[in-house]
């Protein structure tokens, strides 16, 4: 089985081809912009590396956000276009899930996991998971101080592992309250290799219906209504 997965929801762009239980080809690039121009060439590169084409793919998978509004839209539009073009099912994985499943099991031992993603605005996108990666809270967008308050009020375990590119903003605030909070050594961004692995595991969820995006808040730019009269 071949799973072609990709992510361009944040400040990175990645692609991976999962084949027969392992990642056969992988690309990961840090980039603040230019995701739309780079994504398809990246996908062609990893397919060519493995001597495959889009028609050889059994499942297409991509991140559904949250993240940059444009990046999420680019990723899901590409997912839908490729899957429809070759008649294959598709599957969405949240940015939280992709980051959570990229953390090290040893680092998670005895700690709840808090995934924090930068929104490039005052608030942060966040979701909590158990040490075994079960979701323990709904995704949300909150300013750092309010997020800390909520963690203190709802999280019963003292020790926390914090992952995601927003970890640097929230971990010091948690420590000031006396919480044992440490930043994950890796897993700063969603990575297509984790998305591909999850899609292979969750292949029964794949569908020919496009997955819904997760935005958590309105876009920073909205279209104005045309002038009347």
Account of the protein in words:
This protein is of the alpha/beta class and 229 residues long. The chain folds into two domains: 2-96 and 190-205, Nucleotidyltransferase, domain 5, CATH 3.30.420.40; 105-183, 2-Layer Sandwich (Nucleotidyltransferase, domain 5). 32% of the residues lie in helices and 25% in strands. It has seven helices and ten strands. The chain has helices spanning 35-49, 69-86, 95-100, 105-108, 144-154, 167-176, 192-201, and strands at residues 2-7, 12-19, 22-30, 59-63, 90-93, 112-118, 124-129, 140-142, 159-163, 180-183. The chain has a five-stranded mixed beta sheet with strand order 3-2-1-4-5, sandwiched between helices. Helix 1 crosses helix 2 and helix 5 (144-154) packs across helix 6. The longest helix has 18 residues, at 69-86.
How would you concisely characterize the structure shown here?
With 229 residues, the chain is an alpha/beta fold. It has helices spanning 35-49, 69-86, 95-100, 105-108, 144-154, 167-176, 192-201, and strands spanning 2-7, 12-19, 22-30, 59-63, 90-93, 112-118, 124-129, 140-142, 159-163, 180-183.
Supply database-style keywords:
single chain; 229 residues; Nucleotidyltransferase, domain 5; 2 domains; five-stranded mixed beta sheet; 7 helices; 10 strands
SSE blueprint and pairings:
Elements: E1 2-7, E2 12-19, E3 22-30, H1 35-49, E4 59-63, H2 69-86, E5 90-93, H3 95-100, H4 105-108, E6 112-118, E7 124-129, E8 140-142, H5 144-154, E9 159-163, H6 167-176, E10 180-183, H7 192-201
Parallel strand pairs: 1-4, 4-5, 6-9, 9-10
Antiparallel strand pairs: 1-2, 2-3, 6-7, 7-8
